[in-house]
Amino acid sequence: MFKKLKKLGISILTSLIIVTGVGQLSLIKADQTLPQLDLEAKSAIAIDAKTGQIIYAKDDKQTYPVASMSKLLTAYILLQAIHKGEVTWETKVTPTATEVDISNNTELTNVPLQEGHSYTIRQLYQAMLVGSANAATMLIGNAISGTQTKFIDKMRETAKSLGITDAKIYSANGLTAKYLGDEIYPNTDENAENEFSVRDMAIISQKLIKEYPEILETTKLTKIDFNDNGEITTVNNTNELLQDDSNLEIDGLKTGTSDAAGYCFASTTNKDGHRIITVIAGAKDNDARFDQTKNLLNYIYNNYDYLAISTNQALRQDAKVKYGKQSSVSAIIGNDLSLWVPKNTREKALQIKLTPKSSTIEAPIKQGETVGDYQITIAGNLGFVDGSTDLKTKAIAANSVEGINIFIKWWQMLTDAI
Protein backbone atom coordinates (compact mmCIF):
# COMPACT_ATOMS: atom_id res chain seq x y z
CA MET A 1 0.00 0.00 0.00
CA PHE A 2 2.83 2.36 0.85
CA LYS A 3 4.34 1.92 -2.60
CA LYS A 4 1.13 3.25 -4.15
CA LEU A 5 1.51 6.75 -2.69
CA LYS A 6 2.94 8.25 -5.86
CA LYS A 7 0.16 6.73 -7.96
CA LEU A 8 -2.39 8.05 -5.49
CA GLY A 9 -0.97 11.55 -5.83
CA ILE A 10 -1.28 11.36 -9.60
CA SER A 11 -4.85 10.06 -9.44
CA ILE A 12 -5.82 12.90 -7.14
CA LEU A 13 -4.55 15.43 -9.63
CA THR A 14 -6.91 14.07 -12.26
CA SER A 15 -9.83 15.11 -10.07
CA LEU A 16 -8.78 18.76 -9.73
CA ILE A 17 -11.27 21.38 -10.89
CA ILE A 18 -9.74 24.58 -12.25
CA VAL A 19 -11.55 27.83 -11.54
CA THR A 20 -10.77 31.45 -12.27
CA GLY A 21 -11.92 34.43 -10.31
CA VAL A 22 -13.58 32.41 -7.53
CA GLY A 23 -10.26 31.36 -6.03
CA GLN A 24 -11.04 27.81 -4.95
CA LEU A 25 -9.86 24.38 -5.98
CA SER A 26 -11.72 21.25 -4.89
CA LEU A 27 -11.09 17.54 -4.70
CA ILE A 28 -14.19 15.48 -5.46
CA LYS A 29 -14.16 12.05 -3.86
CA ALA A 30 -16.51 9.73 -1.99
CA ASP A 31 -17.56 10.97 1.44
CA GLN A 32 -15.84 9.40 4.41
CA THR A 33 -15.19 10.71 7.94
CA LEU A 34 -11.54 10.74 8.92
CA PRO A 35 -11.07 8.36 11.87
CA GLN A 36 -9.70 9.73 15.13
CA LEU A 37 -6.36 8.70 16.61
CA ASP A 38 -5.58 9.21 20.28
CA LEU A 39 -2.02 8.11 20.84
CA GLU A 40 -0.94 6.75 24.21
CA ALA A 41 1.50 9.55 24.97
CA LYS A 42 1.38 12.94 26.67
CA SER A 43 1.84 14.73 23.36
CA ALA A 44 2.65 14.00 19.74
CA ILE A 45 3.01 15.63 16.36
CA ALA A 46 3.61 14.61 12.74
CA ILE A 47 4.75 17.07 10.08
CA ASP A 48 5.85 17.04 6.48
CA ALA A 49 9.60 17.65 6.54
CA LYS A 50 9.56 19.79 3.39
CA THR A 51 6.66 22.16 4.03
CA GLY A 52 6.22 21.91 7.80
CA GLN A 53 2.54 21.03 7.32
CA ILE A 54 1.12 19.54 10.52
CA ILE A 55 -0.61 16.27 9.69
CA TYR A 56 -1.38 15.19 13.27
CA ALA A 57 -1.17 16.95 16.63
CA LYS A 58 -1.93 16.07 20.24
CA ASP A 59 -1.18 18.69 22.91
CA ASP A 60 1.62 19.82 20.62
CA LYS A 61 2.24 23.25 22.16
CA GLN A 62 2.57 22.17 25.80
CA THR A 63 6.16 21.96 27.04
CA TYR A 64 7.33 18.78 28.76
CA PRO A 65 10.72 17.36 29.76
CA VAL A 66 12.21 15.70 26.67
CA ALA A 67 15.48 14.30 28.05
CA SER A 68 17.97 13.33 25.33
CA MET A 69 15.89 14.62 22.43
CA SER A 70 17.57 17.87 23.54
CA LYS A 71 20.70 16.60 21.82
CA LEU A 72 19.13 17.46 18.47
CA LEU A 73 19.54 21.14 19.29
CA THR A 74 23.17 20.52 20.23
CA ALA A 75 23.63 18.68 16.92
CA TYR A 76 22.11 21.61 15.03
CA ILE A 77 24.49 24.09 16.70
CA LEU A 78 27.46 21.82 16.02
CA LEU A 79 26.67 21.36 12.34
CA GLN A 80 26.15 25.10 12.03
CA ALA A 81 29.58 25.70 13.60
CA ILE A 82 31.22 23.16 11.28
CA HIS A 83 29.68 24.73 8.18
CA LYS A 84 30.90 28.15 9.37
CA GLY A 85 34.42 26.78 9.89
CA GLU A 86 34.41 27.46 13.63
CA VAL A 87 35.31 23.83 14.41
CA THR A 88 36.13 20.83 12.23
CA TRP A 89 35.37 17.12 12.46
CA GLU A 90 38.99 16.57 13.53
CA THR A 91 38.98 19.22 16.27
CA LYS A 92 40.07 17.50 19.50
CA VAL A 93 38.55 18.11 22.93
CA THR A 94 39.73 16.99 26.37
CA PRO A 95 37.09 16.24 29.03
CA THR A 96 37.09 17.86 32.46
CA ALA A 97 37.22 15.70 35.59
CA THR A 98 33.47 16.24 36.01
CA GLU A 99 32.76 15.04 32.47
CA VAL A 100 34.93 11.97 33.01
CA ASP A 101 32.89 11.16 36.13
CA ILE A 102 29.61 11.65 34.23
CA SER A 103 30.84 9.39 31.40
CA ASN A 104 31.43 6.57 33.86
CA ASN A 105 28.12 6.90 35.68
CA THR A 106 26.35 3.60 34.95
CA GLU A 107 22.93 5.20 35.54
CA LEU A 108 23.40 7.21 32.35
CA THR A 109 23.93 6.45 28.67
CA ASN A 110 27.55 7.16 27.76
CA VAL A 111 30.78 6.15 26.15
CA PRO A 112 33.53 5.98 28.79
CA LEU A 113 35.97 8.90 28.65
CA GLN A 114 39.38 9.07 30.27
CA GLU A 115 41.01 12.03 31.96
CA GLY A 116 43.84 13.45 29.87
CA HIS A 117 42.62 11.82 26.65
CA SER A 118 41.45 13.86 23.68
CA TYR A 119 38.53 13.00 21.40
CA THR A 120 37.61 14.26 17.95
CA ILE A 121 34.37 16.07 17.27
CA ARG A 122 33.45 13.28 14.85
CA GLN A 123 33.80 10.66 17.60
CA LEU A 124 31.73 12.70 20.04
CA TYR A 125 29.06 13.54 17.46
CA GLN A 126 28.55 9.89 16.54
CA ALA A 127 28.48 8.83 20.19
CA MET A 128 25.92 11.56 20.94
CA LEU A 129 23.50 10.67 18.13
CA VAL A 130 23.89 6.90 18.03
CA GLY A 131 24.51 6.03 21.68
CA SER A 132 22.99 9.14 23.31
CA ALA A 133 26.31 9.68 25.12
CA ASN A 134 25.81 12.42 27.69
CA ALA A 135 29.38 13.41 28.58
CA ALA A 136 30.35 13.37 24.88
CA THR A 137 27.57 15.88 24.26
CA MET A 138 28.99 18.18 26.94
CA LEU A 139 32.41 18.04 25.28
CA ILE A 140 30.84 19.21 22.03
CA GLY A 141 29.45 22.21 23.91
CA ASN A 142 32.91 22.95 25.32
CA ALA A 143 34.46 22.80 21.85
CA ILE A 144 31.99 25.37 20.52
CA SER A 145 31.59 27.77 23.45
CA GLY A 146 34.39 27.02 25.91
CA THR A 147 32.18 26.19 28.91
CA GLN A 148 28.84 24.54 29.58
CA THR A 149 27.33 27.80 30.83
CA LYS A 150 28.24 29.64 27.64
CA PHE A 151 26.97 26.77 25.52
CA ILE A 152 23.60 26.72 27.31
CA ASP A 153 23.34 30.45 26.60
CA LYS A 154 24.01 29.67 22.95
CA MET A 155 21.36 26.95 22.96
CA ARG A 156 18.83 29.41 24.32
CA GLU A 157 19.74 32.04 21.72
CA THR A 158 19.59 29.48 18.91
CA ALA A 159 16.19 28.21 20.03
CA LYS A 160 14.82 31.76 19.93
CA SER A 161 16.29 32.28 16.45
CA LEU A 162 14.26 29.25 15.32
CA GLY A 163 11.08 30.79 16.69
CA ILE A 164 11.08 28.67 19.87
CA THR A 165 10.20 30.92 22.79
CA ASP A 166 8.68 28.52 25.33
CA ALA A 167 11.58 26.12 25.92
CA LYS A 168 13.46 25.74 29.20
CA ILE A 169 17.09 24.82 28.60
CA TYR A 170 19.59 23.89 31.33
CA SER A 171 21.92 21.33 29.74
CA ALA A 172 23.46 20.34 26.42
CA ASN A 173 22.31 16.74 26.78
CA GLY A 174 18.92 16.86 28.52
CA LEU A 175 20.12 15.36 31.80
CA THR A 176 18.46 16.32 35.06
CA ALA A 177 20.62 19.11 36.52
CA LYS A 178 21.64 17.05 39.57
CA TYR A 179 23.80 14.83 37.35
CA LEU A 180 25.89 17.74 36.04
CA GLY A 181 28.03 18.23 39.14
CA ASP A 182 29.95 21.50 39.23
CA GLU A 183 29.04 22.14 35.59
CA ILE A 184 25.41 22.80 36.43
CA TYR A 185 24.04 26.01 34.92
CA PRO A 186 24.19 28.83 37.53
CA ASN A 187 21.18 29.17 39.84
CA THR A 188 19.50 26.05 38.48
CA ASP A 189 17.43 23.73 40.68
CA GLU A 190 18.95 20.25 40.80
CA ASN A 191 15.69 18.72 39.56
CA ALA A 192 15.43 21.01 36.53
CA GLU A 193 15.33 19.40 33.08
CA ASN A 194 15.14 20.76 29.58
CA GLU A 195 11.56 21.26 28.46
CA PHE A 196 10.28 21.60 24.90
CA SER A 197 6.96 21.06 23.22
CA VAL A 198 6.76 18.38 20.54
CA ARG A 199 6.18 21.23 18.11
CA ASP A 200 9.51 22.75 19.21
CA MET A 201 11.26 19.44 18.62
CA ALA A 202 9.61 19.14 15.21
CA ILE A 203 10.94 22.59 14.28
CA ILE A 204 14.47 21.63 15.32
CA SER A 205 14.22 18.31 13.46
CA GLN A 206 12.96 20.00 10.31
CA LYS A 207 15.75 22.59 10.39
CA LEU A 208 18.34 19.85 10.85
CA ILE A 209 17.10 17.79 7.92
CA LYS A 210 16.64 20.78 5.62
CA GLU A 211 19.92 22.54 6.35
CA TYR A 212 22.15 19.61 7.25
CA PRO A 213 20.70 16.46 5.66
CA GLU A 214 24.03 14.72 6.28
CA ILE A 215 22.84 14.14 9.85
CA LEU A 216 20.81 11.20 8.53
CA GLU A 217 24.02 9.42 7.53
CA THR A 218 24.77 9.19 11.25
CA THR A 219 21.29 8.75 12.75
CA LYS A 220 20.63 5.75 10.50
CA LEU A 221 23.64 3.82 11.85
CA THR A 222 22.59 0.86 13.97
CA LYS A 223 25.87 0.90 15.90
CA ILE A 224 29.33 2.44 16.05
CA ASP A 225 32.70 1.47 17.48
CA PHE A 226 34.04 4.18 19.79
CA ASN A 227 37.83 4.01 19.64
CA ASP A 228 39.69 5.43 22.64
CA ASN A 229 43.40 4.92 21.90
CA GLY A 230 42.76 1.36 20.72
CA GLU A 231 40.19 0.52 23.39
CA ILE A 232 36.96 -0.18 21.49
CA THR A 233 33.49 0.34 22.91
CA THR A 234 30.65 -0.87 20.69
CA VAL A 235 27.67 1.45 20.95
CA ASN A 236 24.21 0.38 19.76
CA ASN A 237 21.69 2.91 18.49
CA THR A 238 18.88 3.59 20.96
CA ASN A 239 16.48 3.91 18.00
CA GLU A 240 15.07 0.39 17.73
CA LEU A 241 12.97 1.19 14.65
CA LEU A 242 16.10 1.26 12.49
CA GLN A 243 15.90 -2.53 12.43
CA ASP A 244 12.13 -2.85 12.52
CA ASP A 245 10.50 -5.10 9.89
CA SER A 246 7.39 -2.92 9.38
CA ASN A 247 8.74 -1.39 6.13
CA LEU A 248 8.45 2.15 7.48
CA GLU A 249 12.03 2.99 6.48
CA ILE A 250 12.94 4.96 9.61
CA ASP A 251 16.38 6.61 9.38
CA GLY A 252 16.43 8.88 12.47
CA LEU A 253 16.40 10.78 14.69
CA LYS A 254 16.70 10.62 18.50
CA THR A 255 15.29 9.00 21.62
CA GLY A 256 14.96 10.56 25.06
CA THR A 257 14.34 8.95 28.46
CA SER A 258 14.11 10.17 32.04
CA ASP A 259 11.84 9.78 35.05
CA ALA A 260 10.23 13.17 34.36
CA ALA A 261 10.12 12.86 30.57
CA GLY A 262 9.01 9.27 30.32
CA TYR A 263 9.91 7.72 26.97
CA CYS A 264 10.27 10.12 24.03
CA PHE A 265 11.19 9.71 20.39
CA ALA A 266 11.71 12.01 17.42
CA SER A 267 11.61 9.97 14.22
CA THR A 268 11.81 10.55 10.51
CA THR A 269 11.04 8.37 7.51
CA ASN A 270 11.29 8.87 3.78
CA LYS A 271 8.62 6.76 2.10
CA ASP A 272 8.45 7.06 -1.70
CA GLY A 273 10.33 10.34 -1.57
CA HIS A 274 7.99 12.02 0.94
CA ARG A 275 9.71 12.67 4.27
CA ILE A 276 7.70 12.83 7.49
CA ILE A 277 8.89 13.85 10.97
CA THR A 278 7.10 12.58 14.08
CA VAL A 279 7.70 13.40 17.74
CA ILE A 280 6.29 11.42 20.67
CA ALA A 281 6.67 12.68 24.26
CA GLY A 282 5.74 10.91 27.48
CA ALA A 283 5.09 7.35 26.33
CA LYS A 284 4.76 4.80 29.15
CA ASP A 285 7.76 2.62 28.30
CA ASN A 286 10.46 1.90 25.75
CA ASP A 287 8.29 -0.29 23.52
CA ALA A 288 5.41 2.17 23.66
CA ARG A 289 7.34 5.07 22.15
CA PHE A 290 8.19 2.96 19.12
CA ASP A 291 4.74 1.34 18.87
CA GLN A 292 3.04 4.74 19.07
CA THR A 293 5.35 6.09 16.38
CA LYS A 294 4.39 3.19 14.11
CA ASN A 295 0.72 3.75 14.88
CA LEU A 296 1.03 7.40 13.96
CA LEU A 297 2.83 6.74 10.68
CA ASN A 298 0.41 3.98 9.69
CA TYR A 299 -2.50 6.29 10.50
CA ILE A 300 -1.11 8.91 8.13
CA TYR A 301 -0.43 6.48 5.30
CA ASN A 302 -3.88 4.89 5.66
CA ASN A 303 -5.88 8.11 5.90
CA TYR A 304 -4.03 10.73 3.86
CA ASP A 305 -2.98 11.12 0.27
CA TYR A 306 0.14 12.97 -0.81
CA LEU A 307 -0.83 15.62 -3.32
CA ALA A 308 1.95 16.91 -5.55
CA ILE A 309 1.23 19.86 -7.83
CA SER A 310 3.93 20.90 -10.27
CA THR A 311 4.31 24.26 -11.98
CA ASN A 312 3.55 22.82 -15.40
CA GLN A 313 0.13 21.53 -14.35
CA ALA A 314 -2.99 23.54 -15.08
CA LEU A 315 -3.48 25.24 -11.72
CA ARG A 316 -4.12 28.85 -12.64
CA GLN A 317 -6.23 31.92 -12.03
CA ASP A 318 -6.53 35.25 -13.83
CA ALA A 319 -5.32 38.60 -12.53
CA LYS A 320 -6.54 41.85 -14.01
CA VAL A 321 -4.06 43.88 -16.05
CA LYS A 322 -4.14 47.59 -16.78
CA TYR A 323 -2.86 49.24 -19.97
CA GLY A 324 -2.36 45.91 -21.72
CA LYS A 325 -3.48 44.48 -25.02
CA GLN A 326 -5.19 41.84 -22.86
CA SER A 327 -7.29 42.71 -19.84
CA SER A 328 -5.88 39.88 -17.70
CA VAL A 329 -2.90 37.58 -17.27
CA SER A 330 -3.05 33.91 -16.36
CA ALA A 331 -1.11 33.27 -13.13
CA ILE A 332 0.37 29.88 -12.20
CA ILE A 333 2.26 28.70 -9.13
CA GLY A 334 5.93 29.65 -9.07
CA ASN A 335 7.25 26.37 -7.66
CA ASP A 336 6.18 22.78 -7.15
CA LEU A 337 3.90 22.20 -4.16
CA SER A 338 3.22 19.19 -1.98
CA LEU A 339 0.48 18.72 0.59
CA TRP A 340 -1.12 15.92 2.59
CA VAL A 341 -4.91 15.83 2.18
CA PRO A 342 -7.48 13.54 3.83
CA LYS A 343 -8.62 10.61 1.73
CA ASN A 344 -12.19 10.11 0.59
CA THR A 345 -13.81 13.40 1.43
CA ARG A 346 -16.33 15.53 -0.44
CA GLU A 347 -15.15 18.65 1.38
CA LYS A 348 -13.19 21.21 -0.55
CA ALA A 349 -9.74 19.95 0.19
CA LEU A 350 -7.96 23.08 -0.94
CA GLN A 351 -8.86 26.74 -1.06
CA ILE A 352 -6.65 28.82 -3.32
CA LYS A 353 -6.55 32.59 -3.26
CA LEU A 354 -4.56 34.80 -5.61
CA THR A 355 -3.41 38.13 -4.20
CA PRO A 356 -1.92 40.45 -6.88
CA LYS A 357 1.41 42.07 -5.94
CA SER A 358 -0.22 45.50 -6.12
CA SER A 359 -3.68 46.98 -6.50
CA THR A 360 -2.88 47.57 -10.16
CA ILE A 361 -0.80 45.27 -12.36
CA GLU A 362 0.37 47.23 -15.36
CA ALA A 363 1.49 45.91 -18.74
CA PRO A 364 3.91 45.07 -20.17
CA ILE A 365 4.25 41.76 -18.34
CA LYS A 366 6.83 39.14 -19.23
CA GLN A 367 6.14 35.43 -19.02
CA GLY A 368 7.58 34.14 -15.73
CA GLU A 369 7.31 37.52 -14.01
CA THR A 370 5.95 37.51 -10.44
CA VAL A 371 2.47 39.01 -10.43
CA GLY A 372 1.42 38.17 -6.87
CA ASP A 373 1.12 35.39 -4.33
CA TYR A 374 -0.98 32.28 -4.00
CA GLN A 375 -2.35 31.43 -0.57
CA ILE A 376 -3.36 27.78 -0.22
CA THR A 377 -5.43 26.55 2.71
CA ILE A 378 -6.30 22.91 3.40
CA ALA A 379 -9.84 22.28 4.61
CA GLY A 380 -9.80 21.29 8.28
CA ASN A 381 -6.05 21.78 8.35
CA LEU A 382 -3.87 22.01 11.46
CA GLY A 383 -1.63 24.66 9.96
CA PHE A 384 2.13 24.61 9.69
CA VAL A 385 4.80 24.12 12.28
CA ASP A 386 6.05 27.71 11.92
CA GLY A 387 2.65 28.97 13.07
CA SER A 388 1.25 29.90 9.66
CA THR A 389 -2.20 28.63 8.71
CA ASP A 390 -1.65 28.30 4.98
CA LEU A 391 0.97 27.66 2.34
CA LYS A 392 2.21 30.65 0.34
CA THR A 393 3.95 30.58 -3.01
CA LYS A 394 4.66 33.06 -5.76
CA ALA A 395 2.16 33.53 -8.58
CA ILE A 396 3.92 34.00 -11.89
CA ALA A 397 2.66 35.01 -15.32
CA ALA A 398 1.96 32.03 -17.57
CA ASN A 399 2.05 34.28 -20.61
CA SER A 400 3.29 37.69 -21.68
CA VAL A 401 1.00 40.70 -21.99
CA GLU A 402 2.09 43.51 -24.28
CA GLY A 403 1.46 47.09 -23.34
CA ILE A 404 -0.81 49.28 -25.39
CA ASN A 405 0.38 52.18 -27.51
CA ILE A 406 1.89 54.92 -25.36
CA PHE A 407 -0.54 57.56 -26.68
CA ILE A 408 -3.53 55.34 -25.91
CA LYS A 409 -2.07 54.70 -22.47
CA TRP A 410 -1.75 58.45 -21.80
CA TRP A 411 -5.34 58.95 -22.91
CA GLN A 412 -6.56 56.20 -20.60
CA MET A 413 -4.54 57.64 -17.71
CA LEU A 414 -6.06 61.05 -18.38
CA THR A 415 -9.61 59.73 -18.47
CA ASP A 416 -8.97 57.70 -15.33
CA ALA A 417 -7.82 60.84 -13.55
CA ILE A 418 -10.95 62.68 -14.63
Automatic annotation (TrEMBL):
Catalytic residue list: S68 (acyl-ester intermediate), K71 (proton acceptor), S132
Positions with a binding annotation for substrate: K254
Span of domain Peptidase S11 D-Ala-D-Ala carboxypeptidase A C-terminal: 304-403
InterPro entries to which the protein is assigned, alphabetical: Beta-lactam/transpept-like (IPR012338), Peniciliin-bd_prot_C_sf (IPR015956), Peptidase_S11 (IPR018044), Peptidase_S11_C (IPR012907), Peptidase_S11_C_sf (IPR037167), Peptidase_S11_N (IPR001967)
Pathway: Cell wall biogenesis; peptidoglycan biosynthesis
Family the UniProt entry places it in: Belongs to the peptidase S11 family.
Protein name stated in the entry: serine-type D-Ala-D-Ala carboxypeptidase
Species, as recorded: Ligilactobacillus salivarius (strain UCC118) (Lactobacillus salivarius)
Chain's gene name: dacC
